[in-house]
Amino acid sequence: MKLTKTPLAMALLVAGIGSVALAHGGVKNAAVMARMNGMTSISEAMKVLGAMAKGQTQFDAETARAAAKDVGTLSAQIPDLFQAPETDPKTEALPVIWERFDAFTALAQDTEASALALSQSLTTPDDLTAGLAQLGATCKACHKEYRK
Fold it and tell me: Rounded CA gap, 101 and 140, in Å?
């Protein structure tokens, strides 16, 4: 993924890192922190795609494909990250994850498949718009059921 090292880009990067640190501040359980970091990585890759789809950044097929591939690769790790029913007061994960772990895993796999398909087929802004809508729906389906 290409990163632009402009002062604005660097400021946004620092601000983003700072907000992640604040959001994850006080998490004591290492497994929960690992999950939160994994989900934050997915979110960051989705933001790259979203900014391009909204025209906030210039469309770049290579960068978009890399971000989609990152979402897919990271989504494949979700079941392992959530395998143990770890908790922490700061977690946004709902206990229903472990009550319906097979369904939760299936949704993570849907996100992985959607992201990887997008990473392989994306060549135009229209491809991004259509693919991002489908990918976003897979994320939303999981968040609706399994996240505070």
Answer: 17
- Residue 45 token pair: 């890759």
- As given in the structure block, the two tokens for residue 22 are 């604040």
Residue 69 near residue 115, CB atoms below 8 Å: yes
Q: Are 90 and 27 in contact (CB under 8 A)?
A: yes
| Per-residue model confidence as pLDDT tens for the chain (148 residues) | 444 443 443 334 444 444 444 457 889 999 999 999 999 999 999 999 999 999 999 999 999 999 999 999 999 999 999 999 999 999 999 999 999 999 999 999 999 999 999 999 999 999 999 999 999 999 999 999 999 9
Distance CA 104, CA 102 (A): 5
Can you tell me the distance from the alpha carbon of 42 to that of 72, in angstroms, rounded to the nearest whole number?
9
The whole-angstrom separation of Cα 11 and Cα 75 is: 28
Q: Which residue in the block uniquely carries the two structure tokens 């392989």?
A: 120
pTM, two decimals, is: 0.82
What is the secondary structure of 119-147 as a DSSP string? HHH--SHHHHHHHHHHHHHHHHHHHHHHB
